[in-house]
Write a structure and sequence with these properties.
The protein is mainly alpha-helical and 470 residues long. The protein has helices at residues 3-31, 33-58, 78-93, 105-118, 122-143, 147-159, 161-166, 173-193, 201-219, 223-247, 252-272, 276-288, 292-307, 325-338, 343-358, 361-366, 379-403, 410-430, 434-440, 442-458, and strands spanning 68-70, 73-74. It has one domain.
Amino acid sequence: MPLLTIVLLRLLAYTVLVSAVVLVVRAAYQRSSVLGGIVAFGLSGRAVLGTLLFLISYWRWPLFEGAQMGGGFWTLALDGRWYFDAASQAVVSGIGSVPEGSASPFYVQVLALWMHLFGVNPLSAVLFNLACYACSVALILGVATDRRAVTLALAAVTFSPALVIFGTQALKDTLCALLITMALSGMCWWMKALEPERFSWRQLTLGAVLLAAAVYGLGGIRAYLSVFVLAGYGAVVLWSIYRVVAAHDSWGLIGAQVSLGLILWVAFAAGAGAYYDAYHAIIVRTIGSPLQPLAELQTARAGFARSQGATSILTPPTNAGGATATEALNAADRLARYTGDDLASRLRNLALGCAVLFVPISLLKALSIVTFPGGRGLLYITDIDTVVMDVAILASMFFLGSAYRGRRSVPVMLFTIVIALLATIALAYVVTNFGTLFRLRLIVAIPLWLLPVFVTMSTSREGRPSAFVT
């Protein structure tokens, strides 16, 4: 392609991106100056921090030298280098060259397409994360009808230390957050459009497209999360059947729900690619044996336990690192209790995992509930993130109590809570490395942060709260 054409296309891409971001900020300011300030800070803060971290690592400035990888990359995002290299190769070899069975192929493909437009360099990944954040804000504003709910949700998404940190690297977390937001907003529009007095083909189509796109994307990033979304939708279908039988609603509701369910399953199969067969086999085995998921969780946990890691919450029973004999015995006892197969051990595993998810890790270490060295100096940052996450979840649940308005709230609440609950159980039980949990727990927090926004929208009368959806 001629150089002049590349330059013109890139200028056009940047113009479109800047214009879209300006529209998002303007829409936020139209709702309130507080919302506008939150969004403007979220965009500018991420841009400045991402650029600064890139320059420090690229030029090897004498700041946080132990955490630098060089080339604009950092040790806090070790796999970010791999994703960037894989996407860069896909720019040269073609998007189809990304193997289906590789790590997060959908993210690699999308990042490669992005870098086709905005250039092959680490800052393009930062810009991509900014665009994902702006899209998430647009979706939230597009459904929000209650100013308090949207303020709470945008504050949580904007000031989450984990989302800010991972948004400065070539990582998939910001895209994953966007896909979760798409799934929730899609469910909200879908259920709202199915209300007889508010039926709208436009909103129905919008909801179906958002849900299918979210399931497809999550299938190619974290396929298990796509399964959780399908399970949440299954709960909504069961609720719809109950409504038809108990309240004599139209049987057309069931037909619509089943039709969308088939579409979502096809989207999952297409998005998951090489991973589909494994999950399909698990689902089939679960039909014959309802306890099969527990066996799968146990197998997955055993794999994590064997891999250990720098921040494993299962301290191996050794005397390495200068541990005293008493400390070694305590570690051995803890390891024995948390690697057992019996019901008591499984419940302890779940309790320990939940504690690590929702309690500041420094407190757990001080109480000797977990003991691991290191953490690359990031443990205090994770403590701040835990507090922010917990406060935002508690505030959301408190607000949800006043936002609940009967049966119209139920489908969206069911959908969201099933996703969050399944994610909590899976992460708390399976993942034994705190560093991994620090990243993954966002898939638990984000649905809970956003739930009040979607509940208030699903029960509002007008159904067209913003210029983003008309």
